[in-house]
Amino acid sequence: MIGALLAAPTALVTDNWWDIRDLSNLSGAILDLIEDAGGPGWLTYVVGALLGTLGIVSFIGGVAIINIWIERRVVGRMQSRLGPNRVGPFGLLQPVADAIKLMQKEVLQPRVADGLVFTVAPIAFTVPGIALLAVIPWGRNMVLADLDVGIVFLFAMSSLAALAVFIGGYGSNNKYALFGSMRVIAMLVTYEIPIVLSLLGVVMFAGSMNLNQIVLFQADNWLFLIMLQPLAFLIYFLSSSAELNRTPADLAEAESEIAGGYHVEYSGMKFGLYYAAELINAVAVSTIIATVFLGGWWLYKIDEIVPGWMIVIGKIYAVYFVFIWTRGTLPRFRIDQLLAFAWKWMTPMAIINILLVAGEVVLWEETGWSAGLLLPLYIAINGAMTAVLIVAWVRVMAPKFQRYPDRPRMYDGIDVPSLPAPASIGPTAPGAAPARRATV
Amino acid sequence: MIDDAGIVVAFWILSATTVICALMVAAARNLIHAVLFLALTFVGVAGIYIVLSADFVAVVQVLIYAGAVGVLMTFAIMLTPGADRLNSSTVFQAPALVLSALVLAVIVFVALDTEWAISDRQAFSATARSLGEAFLKPYIVPFEVASVLLAAAMIGAIVLSREEPEDERAA
Amino acid sequence: MAIKSDLVEVNIGPQHPSTHGVFRMVAIIDGERIVDVKMVVGYLHRSMEKLAEERTYTQNIPFTDRMDYLAAMTGNLGYVLSVEKLAGVEVPERAQYLRTIFAELQRIASHEMATGAFINDCGAWQTPVMWCFRDREKVLDLFEMVCGARITTNYMRIGGVAFDIPDEFLPALDRLINDDLPRRFEELEQLIVGNEIILMRARDVGIVTPELAINASLSGPMIRSAGIAWDIRKADPYCVYDRVNFDIPVGYNGDSYDRMVIRIEEMKQSLRIIRQCMSDLPAGPHKVDVPLALRPPAGEAYSRVESPKGELGFYVVSDGSSAPYRWHVRPPSLINLTVLREMTVGQTIADAIVTLGSIDINVGEVDR
Amino acid sequence: MSVLPDVVLMTLELEQVLIVGGILFAIGLYVALSKRNAIGILMGVELMLNAVNVTLLAFARFIESPRPIDGHVFATFVITIAAAEAAVALALAVAVYRHRETVNIDEIDVLRW
């Protein structure tokens, strides 16, 4: 698996080390240099792994810094304010200033906290998000670990992050943190299912769990999988925003309810690590969406001119912008509503989607009709299916909302109904409003 | 026999980590810490699987053991708040130790003494596809039985952990 | 609840992001469900009612700024109305109109704050509250223009208002209420009215039945949400409210959502009132001369106004000296808060926060 | 190969993996036999299952076989069953706790509840 690391360039126009369209040219040149100098095999191996890791870690470090700025500026625009604009040009150094401030702060630890767990949790929360990026193809040959089961690896890593959040909340020994932890677990158990099921449809179309193969499938068929799988995309997007703790599903931290949730006791750089990890996870999920649904490094011939990794990063930020957008717009669900939404809507929809995809793939393979004929048909069918399901859901949900009008009645004068006075004021049955004179 | 130096070094590092973490599961005084070390052990074992070129099983190991079973255990510990949180031992500590040592000795003896029919196979290239074919062709019956078992376990767990309604308990 | 857990006591506040000040709820919870709620008030108690007995009637006006510091104008107004009633002061016509205009502007400012904070309690990440603050700032700009202060205005005086409006005030007001605010309200409504998530979070949450509303003496949006059209401005008109046309928005279900949309609708009605007052604004003195150390005849007076939170009443007893013998406030926030237990028991913590946000308390007024 | 000393550990043999698996199994056995807490015992059982999986995959990798992937199939089945077992066992622990206020196995000795 790691052996496939930085495989020899096959389809590139040039493989000169300076060709930045594919950074594996550069690392390959360095490795060749070591081999030519008579370095042992294991050295090449270690250096190759280190180079790839260095690339990913430096990317994630830069992203964690720049994304704080991007998120705050973009949300600032949406909220009709400026956002950070004092430190450095356009406030670009604000994240650096924040980081310095966080490092200077004392790391407080409650006396009753579980010291080991309390310390390990933020680190354990950060690692999976970074590890996840190892299997992402950044270019035609640029993939650190060309894992054959890439998609399952993504699921595994996201489930690890939940364990970290959970023990962080537990180790804080704080009631609010425990609420956050419990919510994380409930959400993890619930949302893992639609996530897996939604990506299953993609895997069935691509015929591989290897992320590079999925990208190649999109490149070969000249389409983005989001067109073939709009429902899966919606389900994955919503579920992953639940996994990421972003509004409308940021229940685990829910500042207005449980005051920060699992990280309520954290301060200083431990909190900074949580904060960075949250951004890293958001980028990781954006990367998955960009790779699986938006074609990764491939973009309609443009990838022959522009380096693939730049295209990936561009797509990552396009997705990330949508995450910021939803965060800046929507209020938060209640926990039972969020779980009900997953169980009662997203999971059945994902299963319907899988059945549909299975039928389509079988039809494709059995008849041997050309992709040029079938794929547009599938795009139409799946799009229509998505629209129908969403409309059906809205129809099902609407009566609950439309029991009363959205806007209040208007009275010209005072109108106080005479009511029989109850013996005592006590809890009354909700919704048991008596009939009143309708004087609208 | 694997003679790729990187993989061998990785194996020994992973093995040392895994064994140390497993020992900590036995030695940790707090049950929650024991669960955390257990999760680390699971991850280490997954690393060993990768060394043995079983990448699908490794990823599934992380997904199910470290992700699900670890969380489940932590959850169970928290759902039993009044119970002892100490990872203490029973009086059978010494016999258990002796027995484990015996079992280990037997395993080592068997491992070293047997003439294994070693093949000179290279690492598996892609296990997921052949694994899927194995599941759906020769092992289809066990596969279906396993899914029935999972469903049964799910229902069983729900029934067991469900609060009995008051009237049922009274009856 | 599948798995019954032990009851846990959770302190929500006094240091909590959404208790709107230093209010403390001690919630006994089972899982996430609230079994019992105890309200603890008094963290912001400043002994205003006692202090007021040592000061002259005019010196007491700044206290009313600092009670409901989000609605200082209506606080001023309620107090000076009661003193005027006690001392029998006739207020000039222009002052009456100015008082109405500023009371309604204050209602807009306060309701903007309440709506934004309420959506924040629903979990929106700052966007509505920022939009609402932006609009509130525009109103506060007008306050600054006329009296130099933005929050603690101290503008009303016994016998009128402190200053007449400057020349640039009326054009600015006209721009604000005819152009700026209607557009902003439109925008805000698009964002939150009928938003499915807000409906899910706020519908059927924190229900006040009409019986409860009347028996607990609720007022303001709380009682109107329960379907009872009750408004002091209509029931016991003061200033020029009997001369302007406006409607009372009334809810259906008594839940948090109703209270939110009632506030938004009231802001629009306030614009309507201000427009009428602007066109009718007479010339003349803005104040009659009242001795600074006013000595009203011995007696008592109670007068009430419809503050943004509800019925704000002032009860003043005079013994003929220059300081009130007794000075009592009927704070709408405190009275509305008393039903919190009835509203929240049986809900989840998240709902309790939404309910508290929808009551729109101001702890400065609750504790005084 | 020139830098590192050419020790015997530089190649990975089946026996070495089996011994690591054996150590894990022994630790799991010790944990399962000696712990008082039912959840602790379950941890030991899971350790043993993991050790078995290590050996299964080692055999799949090293031993001559017409269908080497069978080891992986077995390991996957073991993981599946272990997940089911963990769910049921932890549900049992919770159920026992509800009746007895303890999950220590040496206190649960009346064969009924």
Extended strand count of chain B: 0
The helix-strand sequence of chain B is: HHHHHHH
Per CATH, what is the topology of the largest domain in chain B?
Answer: Four Helix Bundle (Hemerythrin (Met), subunit A)
Any idea what the shape of chain B is? Answer: globular
CATH class of the largest domain in chain B: Mainly Alpha
Write down the overall mean pLDDT of chain B. Answer: 81
Name the assembly state. Answer: heterotetramer
Helix tally of chain B equals: 7
Our measurement of the CA-to-CA distance between the termini of chain A, rounded to an integer number of angstroms, reads 72 Å
From the structure above, extract its key features.
heterotetramer; C: 368 residues; Cytochrome-c3 Hydrogenase, chain B; three-stranded antiparallel beta sheet; 15 helices; 48% helix; D: 113 residues; mainly alpha; Helix Hairpins; 3 helices; 68% helix
What does this structure look like?
- The complex is a heterotetramer of chains A (440), B (171), C (368) and D (113).
- Chain A has 440 residues and is mainly α.
- Chain A has a domain at 99-401.
- Chain A has 14 helices and one strand; from the N terminus they run ααααααααααααααβ.
- Chain A has helices spanning 23-36, 41-78, 94-104, 115-132, 150-172, 175-206, 211-221, 225-228, 230-243, 255-258, 268-292, 308-329, 335-367, 371-401; one strand spanning 409-411.
- Chain A is globular.
- Chain B has helices spanning 5-27, 31-51, 55-79, 93-113, 127-136, 140-161, 166-170.
- Chain C is of the alpha+beta class and 368 residues long.
- Chain C has a single domain (47-367), classed as Cytochrome-c3 Hydrogenase, chain B (Orthogonal Bundle).
- Chain C has 15 helices and nine strands.
- In chain C, strands 1-2-3 form a three-stranded antiparallel beta sheet.
- In chain C, a hairpin with a 2-residue loop joins strand 2 and strand 3 (33-40).
- The two termini of chain C are 41 Å apart.
- Chain D is mainly alpha-helical and 113 residues long.
- Classes of the chains: A mainly alpha (440), B mainly alpha (171), C alpha+beta (368), D mainly alpha (113).
- Chains in contact: A-B, A-C, A-D, B-C, B-D.
- Chains A and B meet through helix 2, helix 4 and helix 5 of A and helix 1, helix 2 and helix 3 of B.
